[in-house]
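Good morning N.,

You mentioned wanting to compare the apo and holo forms, so I went ahead and generated the holo version with s-citryldethia Coenzyme A. This is what I fed in:
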Amino acid sequence: MADKPATATLSFGGRSLELPMQSPSVGPDVIDIRKLYAEGDIFTYDPGYTSTASCMSTITYIDGDRGELLHRGYPIDQLAQKSHFLEVCYLLLYGELPTAGQLEDFETRVTRHTMLHEQMLYFFRGFRRDAHPMAIMVGVVGAMSAFYHDSTDIADPWQREVAAIRMIAKMPTIAAWAYKYSIGQPFVYPKNSLDYAANFLNMCFAVPAEDYVVDPILSKAMDRIMMLHADHEQNASTSTVRLAGSSGANPFASIAAGIACLWGPAHGGANQACLEMLREIGTVDRIPEYIARAKDKDDPFRLMGFGHRVYKNFDPRAKVMKESADEVLALLGVEDNETLKVAKELERIALEDDFFVEKKLYPNVDFYSGIILNAMGFPTSMFTPIFALSRTVGWISQWKEMIADPQQKIGRPRQLYTGAGRRDYIEVEDR
Ligand code: SDX
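and this is what came out, ligand included:
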């Protein structure tokens, strides 16, 4: 006799409801509440979705207690050591590690989509030079639906595939050109002879006036940073892409919505905010003052790059990023970097402090990334655009999974209404 499927009994107001449960391949069981309102005339309440599974997914799994991140089952630390960004892109998009032939074909397809429509240059030129690169990225990516009409029909699997390749391929060009525009240098076009990360660095740092050779160590570090940011379950920006896409919005508009969400300092904007915080602290002796502020309930200050909704142990990406920071800064001969010293001492003090231990606050992916990017020559304003170009593969993989999901429907949460009950209009003379 097959085990009866598990159910959850919900008792309220003298009634009880049997709700079906579902078991994942890994992680906690879920209570399927899809019929709760129809059968029980009741909502659940979960602002910030701390206990809510918004969808079914096969792409990424995070074990927050063990500090584990799996992409299609493969641990991030193994991928960071043994793989490279475009191979991880293939894994996230198609579910399996590619054969040598599949990888070569995929890399060729991405390489041949790295150029932007020439008319898009005018978009960049419409911005002020001091526009934040994230503002440019949101605008340019949203505008892509005005240029790439042959990959906006979400009902056509081939157009969804082309849109995915285009997004992954063009984001480094958009990010690099936003940077070049902000520093008043000419745009550098993609070079098909370079790999993905090297091509991005070349577009950022080459100038027409002289030859530029990409440092292979920096290119490898850049590629690893991209891998570490590729996807992360249903984080705020991925959930934004899914919600935007659930209405049938085209992929470029949905990704632009995700970029806008990532910009916030509580999310992808934390890498910029974290480096600015480390610079504000300045020296190791000022750390206690900031630790005290982070603990002060009346002070809105938070340690940027610390804490996470899911990880209640070390963010595995932060561990790899910290190793990369040591390597890159040593290779660049900046090991006596004061900011790195402050970061390491801040981490040491925080991890011994009861406040952070009790709240399970550990460094997250944003804590060390800015130190590496700064050492590579990027201004803080480029940190979140680099996060966005890296996360594009996660956004587009999750978007494709949602569109193909037979259970998907437009996302439309309900609410706990606490406003005024029904009342009649009052003429102005009677108010
Ligand atoms: C990313 O979701 C993802 O997967 C995101 C991401 C991804 O790859 O997509 O991992 C990328 O966004 C990483 C997080 C980057 N953000 C920051 O580093 C900003 C600083 N961190 C915090 O703002 C905060 O930790 C969040 C936003 C990351 C998580 O917030 P939660 O889950 O809503 O937790 P919370 O705000 O309820 O905090 C729990 C407690 C609170 O204290 P109490 O109200 O219980 O007394 O911990 C405290 C918070 O005050 N707290 C912090 C803190 N983070 C949380 N106190 C001091 N410094 C911090 N950084």
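Residues 232, 235, 266-268, 270, 294, 302-310, 359, 361, 364-366 surround s-citryldethia Coenzyme A (CB under 6 Å).

Happy to go through it together on a call whenever suits you.

Best,
F.
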